[in-house]
């Protein structure tokens, strides 16, 4: 959500900011917002004036009746009734115009932070760093073919019961997926200080609105009755702060939360890309990291969070690169995003495995999540951050492809062997 006062004070910044993120009619949107803002404030002022007149007239009725001036009392009563009608009209205008204004503000994406590169899509992203040497020799079998050859990955059985974009994992591969998730969770909690949370997987509309999935991206969500299935634990973890006022001491060091949960995404509009395999599924598991920070701490926390995700890839010895996303490729709520892309030999390229974003106060305004500094009466909005630490399915894909051998086996990374009962290889 955007601060109407900030937009009112500097509308050109919003025109430029939204235009740079691909909004073609940014000037018209800002003009409409300012028009509605004027109408809303005019209705509020007129309503307050009418209310004051009604209250004053009501007091005079008693005085007129006390001196037996019934004609004046009747005139005042008529005036009060007329003012009641005016007040109701102004309240209705305020309600209608306010709803239109909030709807526009809720549908427009966050402004990019200073230093985020211009660009329309992923071609405008900037490589920040690389780690590890990509595997360019040896077998390069696709993970789907590799898993099916091992008889541990079954897409046909999944399709019979659930349709496309689902998979059945069996045996040692299923255990490896479980091991990957537990390994990641242990790193984030034991080594990086995140508090483990087991949150709901189903949330109300208000929670989805708070983190920015609603109203604009409903087609990407799965609804279950009166609830939505979470597309990421970011929704549940961030909404823990919904309608809360924290003491500054609670976030003097950023609050860090993590969860390993199933995630559910409709993947609307992604047909034809990664339709086979584990990269783009309707159901997958992910370790999510969320931080709640003071405004002055969020940039440093963003760097730290991204480093926490990188640590998992390094311990698994998977080559990757860090990318700074351009304005046109960032998510709706983000003001700055780093993507981590892992090397996939079968595709001879890097693919996204983690996205770490600083959302500033954008989500906090939607959730009314605030904090109060020591000795201050006023409150401020917190800054929220979120990142994958990591997507379990995509990490499994990277392990399968980077650790395959000529015999079709998959070597178990040394860091995961304790989670696999000492198993060193998957397959015959």
What does this structure look like?
It is elongated and about 105 Å long. The protein has helices at 4-9, 11-20, 26-66, 70-107, 143-149, 155-162, 171-191, 205-211, 233-238, 298-315, 362-367, 392-402; strands at 126-131, 153-154, 168-169, 195-196, 202-203, 222-224, 227-229, 245-247, 255-264, 283-293, 320-324, 336-344, 349-358, 370-372, 380-381, 383-391, 410-411, 425-426. Strand 6 (222-224) and strand 7 form a beta hairpin. The strands form five sheets. It has an eight-stranded mixed sheet. It has a three-stranded antiparallel sheet with strand order 5-7-6. The protein has a three-stranded mixed sheet with strand order 8-14-15, with no helix packed on it. The chain is an alpha+beta fold.
Which strands sit side by side, in order, in the main sheet? Answer: 1-11-12-13-16-10-9-4
User: Which series of helices and strands comes N to C?
Assistant: HHHHEHEHEHEEHEEHEEEHEEEHEEEHEE
Which range does the strand content fall in?
15-25%
* Separate helix tally: 12
Share of helical residues:
40-55%
Quaternary class: single chain
Shape: elongated
Alpha-carbon distance between the two ends: 54 Å
Q: How is the biggest beta sheet arranged?
A: 8 strands, mixed
Overall pLDDT confidence: 95
Helix/strand-derived class?
A: alpha+beta
Query: Could you give the count of β-strands?
Result: 18
The radius of gyration is 27 Å
| pLDDT < 50 runs, ≥5 residues | none
């Amino acid at each position: 959500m955007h601060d109407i006062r900030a937009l009112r004070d500097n509308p050109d910044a919003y025109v430029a900011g939204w235009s740079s993120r691909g909004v073609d009619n940014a000037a018209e949107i800002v003009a409409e917002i300012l028009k509605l803002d004027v109408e809303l404030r005019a209705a509020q002022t007129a309503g307050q004036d009418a209310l004051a007149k009604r209250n004053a007239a009501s007091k005079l009725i008693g005085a007129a009746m006390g001196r037996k001036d019934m004609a004046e009392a009747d005139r005042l009563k008529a005036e009060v009734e007329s003012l009641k009608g005016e007040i109701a009209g102004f309240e209705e205008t305020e309600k209608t115009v306010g709803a239109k204004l909030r709807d526009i503000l809720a549908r427009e994406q966050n402004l990019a932070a200073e230093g985020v590169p211009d660009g329309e899509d992923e071609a405008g992203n900037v490589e920040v760093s690389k780690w590890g040497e990509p595997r360019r020799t040896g077998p390069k079998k696709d993970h789907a073919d590799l898993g099916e050859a091992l008889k541990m990955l079954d897409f046909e059985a999944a399709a019979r019961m659930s349709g496309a974009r689902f998979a059945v994992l069996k045996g040692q591969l299923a255990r490896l997926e479980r091991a990957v998730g537990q390994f990641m969770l242990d790193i984030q909690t034991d080594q990086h200080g995140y508090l483990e949370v087991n949150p709901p997987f189903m949330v109300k509309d208000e929670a989805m609105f708070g983190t920015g999935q609603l109203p604009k991206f409903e087609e990407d969500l799965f609804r279950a009755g009166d609830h939505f299935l979470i597309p990421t634990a970011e929704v549940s973890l961030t909404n823990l702060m919904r309608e809360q006022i924290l003491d500054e001491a609670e976030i003097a060091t950023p609050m860090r939360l993590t969860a390993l949960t199933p995630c559910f995404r409709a993947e609307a509009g992604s047909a034809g890309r990664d339709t086979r395999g584990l990269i783009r599924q309707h159901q997958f598991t992910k370790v999510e990291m969320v931080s709640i920070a003071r405004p002055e701490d969020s940039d440093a926390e963003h760097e730290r969070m991204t480093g926490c995700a990188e640590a998992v890839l390094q311990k698994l010895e998977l080559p990757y690169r860090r990318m700074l996303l351009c304005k046109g490729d960032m998510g709706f709520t983000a003001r700055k995003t780093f993507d981590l892309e892992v090397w996939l030999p079968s595709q001879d390229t890097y693919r996204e495995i983690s996205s770490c974003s600083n959302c500033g106060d954008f989500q906090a305004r939607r959730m009314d999540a605030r904090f109060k500094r020591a000795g201050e009466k006023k409150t401020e909005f917190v800054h929220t951050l979120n990142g994958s630490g990591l997507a379990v399915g995509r990490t499994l894909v990277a392990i399968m492809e980077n650790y395959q051998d000529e015999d079709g086996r998959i070597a178990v990374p040394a860091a995961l062997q304790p989670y696999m009962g000492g198993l060193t290889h998957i397959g015959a």
